[in-house]
Amino acid sequence: MSSWPIPGTAPFAPEEIEILNRVVGPATPVQRAWLAGFLAGLDAAASAPGTAVLASAAAPQGAALAPQPVAPAQPAEPLTIVYATESGNSERLASDMAKAARKMNLKPTVIDMADLEMSELASAKRLVFIAATWGEGDPPGRAVRAYGELMGEAAPRLEGVQFGVLALGDTAYADFCGVGKKIDARLEQLGGKRIADRVDCDLDFDEPAGKWIDSALKALAPAQDAASSRVIAVDFGGKPAPAGELGPVEAEIIGLIDLNSSQSDKETYHLELSFEGAAPQYKPGDSLDLYAENDPAYVDDLLKAAGLTSDAALRAELIKNRDVTTLSLKAVETYAEVTGHQYVKELLASGKAREWIVGRQLIDLIQQFPIALTADHLRKVTRPLSPRAYSIASSRREVGEEAHLLISAVRYQAFGRARKGVASGYVADQLKKGQKVRVKLRPNRHFALPAPDQDIIMVGPGTGIAPFRAFVQERRATNATGRSWLFFGDRQFTHDFLYQLEWQNALKDGALTRMDVAFSRDTPEKVYVQNRIWEQRRDLIEWLDKGAYFYVCGDAKAMAKDVRATLVKAYADVKGLSAEAAEKAVAGLDRAHRYLADTY
Amino acid sequence: MANDLSRNERIKEASEYLRGTLAEGLREEITGAIIEDDAQLVKFHGMYLQDDRDLRPERGKKKMEKAFAFMIRLRIPGGVCTPQQFLQVQHVAQTYGNHTMRLTTRQTFQLHGIIKSNLKATMREIDRALLTTIAACGDVNRNVMCNPNPLQSRAYRAAYDTAKAISDHLLPATPAYREIWLDGERIVGGEENVVEPIYGKTYLPRKFKVVIAVPPSNDVDVFAHDLGYIAILDENGDVVGYNVTVGGGMGMTHGQPETYPRTAEVMGFCKPQDAVAVAEAVVTVQRDWGDRSDRAHARLKYTIEDHGLDAFRAEVEKRSGVKLDQPKPFTFDSTGDRYGWTEGEDGNGHLTLFVQNGRIQDIPGGPQWMTGLREIAQMHQGDFRLTANQNIIIAGVAPDQRWDIDKLVEQYKLTRDASPLRRNSMACVALPTCGLALAESERYLPDLVTELEERLASHGLSDGEIIIRMTGCPNGCARPYLAEIGLVGKAPGKYNLYLGAAFDGSRLSKLFAEDLDHKGIVSALDPIFAAYMSERRPGERFGDYTIRAGFIAQTSNGADFHNNTGAKRTS
Ligand code: SRM
Ligand SMILES: Cc1cc2nc3c(=O)[nH]c(=O)nc-3n(C[C@H](O)[C@H](O)[C@H](O)COP(=O)(O)OP(=O)(O)OC[C@H]3O[C@@H](n4cnc5c(N)ncnc54)[C@H](O)[C@@H]3O)c2cc1C
Ligand SMILES: Cc1cc2nc3c(=O)[nH]c(=O)nc-3n(C[C@H](O)[C@H](O)[C@H](O)COP(=O)(O)O)c2cc1C
Ligand code: SF4
User: Which SS3 state, helix, strand or coil, does residue B470 take?
Assistant: First the structure.
């Protein structure tokens, strides 16, 4: 951390000094120089009414006032940064890059791919895509439309556009960074000029992404001649970095209970966290990253298979910090490399590795292809253990300095071994009341509540219900006047009705206007939320026509897709539209940010 | 009077012939329950709102309401159903219930664990099999029982036809049932006497139960019911008429001596063709005379205690226009079932199987009742008859089919018989479904019996037929006060022990010891078994012995049930 320029003796309150230091401390000489001039100019302006130029940025998140330089600065070179995000990583990197870009005399414009117009691409001179891959190689939900246009016939030619792509992904998925790769190829195909080679980031993207941003900016930045380097160009118009950058904080577990009945075949844990002092300033719709530890029993099996049982330090490291369960193709390749294992090489050569790893974990690789291993080998084949995101299921207005999560235990059998999810298993089997865990706020401003007088429709089967518990609590606390309609589904009414009593109360006190439920295992023919949506389509469309916001949370693989498809069908049926027209209607909701999904 | 009517009377009055707000309640998706008043009304439709009491402790913590579900009781006069009907009921149990069927002490099926959202579907399936649940519960005439006695085929026929006729005649007429469960048209208004000619707006003050017994078997426990018919046969085995009994009932409440079980009294004799008229008269007198202010005092047994048998008989004769004759002599030998194969006069075979506590389920490693009976039902040409002892009879089997049925019985380990004590044992449902249970019953009695069998064996009494019945509360659903050994739940793990009832069901027992736990029960009975072994006279029944040997005082009738209680001798 850089030095603290502003002394404690300065005529400001301690917290103000702290804030100033946070800004001035890391500022470049250029920025400091500008600030000095700006403040001087500010007073001058104040004494001469009318000349003050203070304009607020058009950032919804109550961005700080965004002053323009008093001294007219030489226009900087424009840079367009497009991000395609689901859970916010790409977005964060985009704004990091914008910040860095400003220091390099670039004028960055950050665009959410959800709002991207193709014309903006054509007109861009310098173009950067930071794109995540979701589903099974799909673009993030909100980016689907623009992605489609980019890949389609109508996409503009990009002759002369300089571009670079940063891809975010997870080597655990078969189609690693598929979306970033496709965008990268497409931009070139459209005539763009790649001036920064794509980098595909795994979950531990911070370092590689940082490196890529630096090198990409170097390549993109306009050549700086001696003169211009002294010219001060400033633009504060960019979006403020979201509050996600606060590091992990410790929280104490004050409540942990499995909400499913003891006769249910599911376990869904309601986890109550309380914080030393203030809870992270979360809003309904945000998530928390939970830093979990591996199952010691699993790690012991792994070390046994690796013949490294005696290494206590390694054991501790693996439990705490390494992803020792995921088996990616990359991991198999590394294993073959570092051990030179003959059979593993053959497996890779045969091209069968890709399917062999499906459903398997690292331990299977080591048990099936044993070989003398060192601690270092293990470090090489594993990646850092990344946190897991969980939608916050509470509103601070109702629970104060607490945050509640709803976590479904992942347990399954594969290749003769009982497996469990790292984080959910940690919560289910390791954590106890009174223990502490580390969490980090993961804001999601794309899944926020609308104005209190707006109607909302919430579709959240299974753990998808979590954020809507926060929504309803918030709406109650703020006496919101808008109507709210909740769709919930799970397996059995009697054993899996999550938060049933709370919903009953919400319906009584009016925080919830209406609720429809679907339980798939109570009847011979399975019933899901989309079936209920279909049954209620008339009322539903009427709500939407009146401006209701439509939220979907939960399973991305099937549910989210089925729900969207059902909504399209509903439009077609109720309004007598063609399939295309109905699809357009729903796309219209997307564009208006009234169809909001948070799926995983 | 009107001002101190019991709550249920107001509910019935306001219900518009049992509609209440049931239809609306069923549409309430987010609760598995219905409102209290409707919960009272739904009984008349054959259903009880219950909750899984095993789960109660955890529900609140898990932010869920009680694990509500409905019990559905069918109405099967005389306990006779076709194989197709059996299969359909089983299908419903598998699809919507808890995968078991419960044979009751009143010759019908109960299904447990049906959640509200599945009620209508369930009722439709039941209706499809030409079965009904109307008036299986509630303040109306319940399922009419009839001795399923396969031996005296001709007498049985006559008795069954009478039972069926009475059952049909006393059926509530309200269209609410079809309307609510089978989406029938709402039929509005209608004069009271048009809608419910017999019952009227407020039905009966309390439940009402009718049975028909065919001596010498008293398997239906004729003296335990409000209205009973004891068939009187001529030398050819034809029914010439019935001795009519009234005022029987078991239910009582711990610590309230003004409530007591009562054995019915013989009121007179009627001809077969008068049986229905007499039944209607008894029902309407109870309708008008019964106590509608205190439900604990509303059963016919109290009406008769209050008005006296003679006054009651006179009123019945007046209303029915039937002059009752002097009762004819009759003798009962036992209240139990005859297990295994028997042959009827018509040459057809009847196989009575012992279903422990009436619970039809596939027991891992044990009898596969669900599967076995399904397979039998699929090939069986005759009918099924449910007994008052919670057992099932595969009846009317042509000689050439016996062998196939025997094969299936073996294959699925279905039990033809059990030890003398076990085959004479009965337990009510109690936990976890019964809302009134104070202690375990169905889930506990089998283990207790096992231990008592050992005690009996140790005294060389393995062959002794002793009737033992247990209930989880004093309501007496397994008729424990008519058992030679009666155990009645008082609190979790605690039972009151009753002794001295007659083997043939004609005499009530008396309280011997209170609040016994498992050990207490065994060590209270063990010395009595020992004494019985050494002191009993030839053919002397255990119940009779305990009185003669001075262990317990004799109960002459209901009012006397609570007098002179306690152990008079302990070893
Ligand atoms: C299933 C059955 C016991 C069994 O194991 O077979 C049964 C089960 C129940 N009886 Fe019973 N009774 C059953 C035969 C009896 C009998 C025996 C008989 O009638 O031969 C009696 C004693 C005779 C009598 O009526 O006095 C009996 C006297 C009661 C009483 C006390 C009635 C009284 O006036 O004292 C109640 C409680 C009440 O009605 O208030 C009761 C109430 C109940 C309820 C419905 C509890 C309730 O009201 O919430 C029990 C449901 C438990 C469950 O989860 O299934 N049950 N009940 C029998 C069903 C018979 C049928 O098919 O209709
Ligand atoms: C924004 C966001 C919000 C989220 N909110 C919630 C929430 O509110 N509640 C919640 O419970 N989860 C939520 N999740 C999911 C959560 O982050 C974790 O992914 C989930 O809990 C599993 O993590 P884990 O460490 O327990 O399992 P992991 O150790 O990550 O294992 C999961 C992996 O196991 C494998 N697997 C799982 N089941 C099977 C099977 N049957 N057969 C074969 N392989 C299988 C799959 O490869 C799967 O990817 C959210 C995710 C995101 C991105
Ligand atoms: C449900 C789900 C599906 C995912 N699918 C893929 C995938 O198919 N390929 C991939 O490389 N990464 C996949 N990822 C990993 C994400 O791309 C990765 O978490 C990325 O950092 C998310 O960036 P974002 O926050 O900007 O959306 C998936 C993640 C989740 C939670
Ligand atoms: S006797 Fe009591 S416990 Fe047993 S079923 Fe009847 S009401 Fe329930």
Answer: strand
Q: What would the mean pLDDT of A281-292 be, rounded to a whole number?
A: 97
Atom of ligand 3 nearest to the CA of A136: 8
Give distance in angstroms: CA of B517 to centre of ligand 4.
18
Residue A280 is given by DSSP the state: P
State how far the Cα of A369 lies from the Cα of B473, in Å rounded to an integer: 65
Question: What are the DSSP calls for B375-388, one per residue?
Answer: HHHHH--SEEEE-T
| Digit-coded pLDDT (tens) for A241-256 | 444 456 899 999 999 9
Q: How far apart, in whole angstroms, are the C-alpha atoms of residue A189 and residue A159?
A: 10
Give the model's pLDDT for residue B22. 96
Output the CA–CA distances (angstroms, integers) from residue A493 to A13, A529, A577, B66, B67, in the order listed: 56, 13, 35, 11, 9
Name B454's Cβ contacts closer than 8 Å, sequence gap at least 6.
none
Q: Taking the CA of residue A45 as centre, how many other CA atoms within 13 Å lie in the half-sphere pointing to its CB? A: 16
Structure tokens at A251: 């929280």
Q: pLDDT class for B99, splitting at 50, 70, 90?
A: very high
Say how far apart CA B499 and CA B567 lie, in whole Å: 9
pLDDT at B154: 86
Q: Using H for helix, E for strand and C for coil, what is the string for B386-427?
A: ECCCCCEEEEEECHHHHHHHHHHHHHCCCCCCCCHHHHCEEE
Rounded Cα–Cα distance for residues A586 and A595 (Å)? 8
According to DSSP, residue B557 is labeled S
CB B75 within 8 Å of CB B110: no
Asked if the bond preceding B432 is cis, omega within 30° of 0, the reply is yes
Choose, from B12, B19, B43, B73, the residue flagged as catalytic. Answer: B73
Give, in order, the Cα–Cα distances in Å from A428 to each of A249, A424, A431, A576, B334. 21, 6, 7, 48, 58
Rounded mean pLDDT of B336-351? 90
Q: Which of B142, B359, B423, B490 is catalytic?
A: B142
Closest-CA distance of chain B to residue A391, Å: 19
Contact A488, A460 (CB under 8 A): yes
Beta strands in A73-143 (DSSP E): 77-84, 106-112, 126-132
**Which one of the ligands is nearest to A202 CA?**
3
Does the Cβ of B437 fall within 6 Å of ligand 4?
yes
- CA gap A440, A180 in Å, rounded: 26
Atom index in ligand 2 nearest the CA of residue A409 equals 26
Q: Which residues of A touch B59 (CB under 8 A)?
A: 261
Name the residue among B372, B368, B360, B367 with its Cα closest to residue B406: B372
B52 CB neighbours in chain A (<8 A) are 494
Between residues 259 and 318 of chain A, which touch chain B (CB distance below 8 Å)? 259-263, 270
Cis peptide bond N-terminal to A140, omega within 30? no
pLDDT confidence band for A240 (50 / 70 / 90): very low
Under the banding of pLDDT at 50, 70 and 90, the label for residue B416 is confident
Any atom of ligand 4 within 6 Å of the Cβ of B488: no
Q: Which residues of B touch A271 (CB under 8 A)?
A: none
Would you state the torsion angle of the CA atoms of residues A93, A98, A99, A105, taken in this order, to the nearest 10 degrees? 150
Can B407 be counted among the known catalytic residues?
Answer: no
* Phi, then psi, of B289 in degrees rounded to 5: -95, -25
What is the C-alpha separation between B347 and B525, in angstroms, rounded? 43
Phi, psi of B506, deg, nearest 5: -95, -15
When pLDDT is averaged across residues B190-205 and rounded to a whole number, the result is 83
User: Cα distance from B355 to chain A (closest Cα, Å)?
Assistant: 27
- Tokens 């099937």 sit on residue: A558
| Ligand 1 atom closest to Cα of residue B143 | 63
H runs (alpha helix) in A322-388: 329-339, 342-349, 353-356, 362-368, 375-381
